[in-house]
Amino acid sequence: MSSISAHYVQRRTDEACKTTVELAVRLGGKHLADYGSARSRHDFTQRQLLACLILRAYLKTTYRGVLELLSVSPNLREALGMPDKLPHYTTLQKFSARSQVLAIADAMIRTIGRAAGAPQFAKTSAAMDATGMETTSASAHFQSRAGRTRRKWVKVSTIVLCGSLLPLSLVLAWGPGNDKSQARELMAKASQATLPAKLYADAGYDAEWVHDQCRLDWGAESVIKPAKQRADGTRSGFWRSRMSEKHLERKGYGRRWAVKTFFSGLKRTMGSTLTSRKPGQLLAEAAFKVLAYTLRR
Questions:
Q1: 7 or 262, which is more confident?
Q2: pLDDT tens-place string over residues 229-253
Q3: Looking at CB atoms within 10 Å, which of 154, 173, 181, 216 has the fewest?
Q4: For residue 146, what are the CA distances in angstroms to 40, 77, 134, 143, 202?
Q5: Which residues, 6 or more positions from 187, have their beta carbon under 8 angstroms from its beta carbon?
């Protein structure tokens, strides 16, 4: 790559980082008080610390790494409102371990989803699915060759709008586990953001109660590929029995791939490996990756 091309790429990267930081600070201000305690030193606001954590997820770096970058980037410090002083890396580490951080990230996702599902975008379709984020940098192939078993990962479940590919809701859990375990909470959160015309999901969400919640509680038409059927080819349940191949095709089941596209972009840009070590911080880091990717879009 020529020096001119490298400079152009670096400039575009810096601009993207600055935009992400500015959006994070602005959005965080809607969900966070300036300071967590009246007795704190008031050196940095909570939204500044949250924006630093989102930037860390965006850059796929460590707590120390993001502060080293900020120390040589006056534009990013200006966007954060930290022109002269930066927090210690342990300050970011402790902030990410707070119990309310996940709830704040979740509320920010819903705010974005509410804006994406505003009345002018109503009656669009949504897709629901889950993916995993690794808690180790060792590849699945290496673990298999070493005789290790992939025991635990962070499971990211979300519902995204098919047009804008913006998330309506987010649920984090530990894998492995049945996708239906998070479906009820996912749809309940998404219902607070918008009302799509249809919800697409794969066979991992095949259950009559998922159809019922989607249609009766949320008011969206459920289009879910059935997983099981009787020996005679029939399926139990009022809604499940209607999910034939022809019905799925007629209802545009192929649009379900929107959520796969979202996960693909998330992992390509934010990475699929988490670097934190404590369980709470691993979940928070996964949430920040989703949030950073959403703000980047």
A1: 262
A2: 766 667 888 999 999 999 999 999 9
A3: 216
A4: 48, 44, 17, 5, 33
A5: 128, 159, 169, 199, 213, 214, 217, 218
Length of the chain: 297
What does the alpha-carbon distance between residue 63 and residue 96 come to, in Å, rounded to a whole number?
Answer: 10
Predicted confidence at residue 67, as pLDDT, reads: 95
CATH code for the part of the protein at 101-282: 3.30.420
Residue ranges per structural domain of the chain: 3-96, 101-282
Average pLDDT, integer, range 46-51: 95
Residue with tokens 């918008």: 194
Count H helices and E strands in the chain, helices first.
12, 5
Angstrom distance (rounded) from CA 56 to CA 54: 5
Dist CA 205 CA 159 (whole Å): 12
Overall pTM > 0.85 = yes
Whole-angstrom distance, CA of residue 38 vs CA of residue 194: 36
Burial string for 276-291 (b: 16+ CB within 10 Å, else e) reads beeeebbbbbbbbbbb
Q: Transcribe 50-82 into DSSP letters.
A: HHHHHHHHHHT--HHHHHHHHHT-HHHHHHHT-
Angle at 181 between CA 265 and CA 164, to 5 degrees: 30
d(CA 234, CA 8): 59
Pick the range with the lowest mean pLDDT from 5-14, 220-229, 277-286.
Answer: 5-14
The pLDDT tens digits for 123-167 are 689 999 999 998 876 656 566 676 666 678 899 999 999 988 999
Task: Determine the Cα–Cα distance for residues 174 and 169; give it in Å rounded to an integer.
Answer: 17
CA–CA gap between residue 226 and residue 237 (Å, rounded): 11
